[in-house]
Design a protein that fits this description.
Low-confidence stretches: 193-207
Largest sheet: 6 strands, mixed
Radius of gyration: 18 Å
Strand order of the largest sheet: 1-6-5-4-2-3
Mean pLDDT: 84
Strand content: 15-25%
Number of strands: 8
Shape: globular
Order of helices and strands: EHHEEHHHEEEEE
Distance between the termini: 8 Å
Length: about 210
């Protein structure tokens, strides 16, 4: 279907994540369950992802409504990717806990100042290139979207809460993390990333 390889499911038990979080604390790394899942995925997949300017980018969408004081009911794209960059040698050498610590720090660094700079960049790009540019600009690296804390059980359209939740589509650069019995599960297609000669990153599917 042109969307990458076959779907994969990676399971992470609560016991494993708790043990790794405790180990990270003994090593002096601040981590979260989310950053540990991202680090484990990066460890497993980095050999199959082309680097961007020599680095593998691991990115996580951050909802910045609370950081900007926006109401919880705000309806808009109030999301900015937190990006952690690693040399391939670092991902081979570093322990999962150290990788997770760097990812966690990148998430914590999403600030109102960084959001303002990001929005200014998008505005300038739109004014200079037009809206069509956003059809061409992609996100190199591994994108992990964690929906495990979303209250799917609260979605009731009259037939009761959903019995199961599945991603409607999976871009080959995207891993979607959902709650699973006894832990979390990430569903994905193996990312296949290429860089265009203009220097802009573009996600390309291998057909």
């Amino acid at each position: 279907d042109g969307a990458g390889g076959a779907k994969e499911r990676h399971f992470f038990s609560h016991e494993e994540l708790s043990a790794r979080r405790a180990l990270a604390e003994t090593k002096g790394f601040r981590v979260s369950e989310n950053s540990l899942v991202m680090a484990l995925l990066a460890k497993r997949l980095f050999r199959e992802i082309l680097p961007h300017e020599g680095k593998l980018l691991v990115r996580c969408p951050v909802d910045y409504r609370s950081r900007l004081g926006l109401p919880t009911g705000y309806f808009g794209n109030a999301v900015l990717d937190a990006v952690a960059a690693f040399a391939p040698a670092e991902l081979r050498r570093f322990a999962v806990e150290e990788i997770a610590g760097r990812i966690h720090e990148a998430v914590r660094e999403v600030s109102p100042l960084k959001v303002a700079a990001h929005l200014a960049c998008l505005r300038a790009l739109r004014e200079e290139e037009g809206l069509d540019i956003f059809e061409d600009v992609g996100c190199p690296g591994l994108l992990v979207s964690n929906l495990s804390r979303f209250s799917f059980a609260a979605i009731d359209l009259g037939a009761g809460p959903p019995a199961e939740v599945r991603p409607a589509s999976l871009n080959p650069r995207l891993a979607v993390v959902l709650p699973a019995e006894g832990g979390l599960a990430a569903e994905l297609r193996r990312p296949r990333i290429s860089l265009v000669q203009t220097g802009r990153a573009e996600a390309l599917s291998v057909r």
